[in-house]
Amino acid sequence: MNGKIKLLIFNSILITALPLLGLPRTIKNIILFAVGLVSLALVLSIKKGVRILRLKLKRIEGQQGTFIG
To answer: Would the pTM count as exceeding 0.90?
Structure first.
């Protein structure tokens, strides 16, 4: 999962940087830049959510290990 998230982050940064590499300033490049920023924000929020879920899963597994029913 981490590899896929890192690949998504790389792709988002690449999409965001494309218009800044000297391509002509057209509406398509502005839209491409905006799409890159939005996808980067989305990937970072997914990464944060995955980290929170992993912490919750570790807590649940730890609680089940100490429960003697």
So the answer is: no
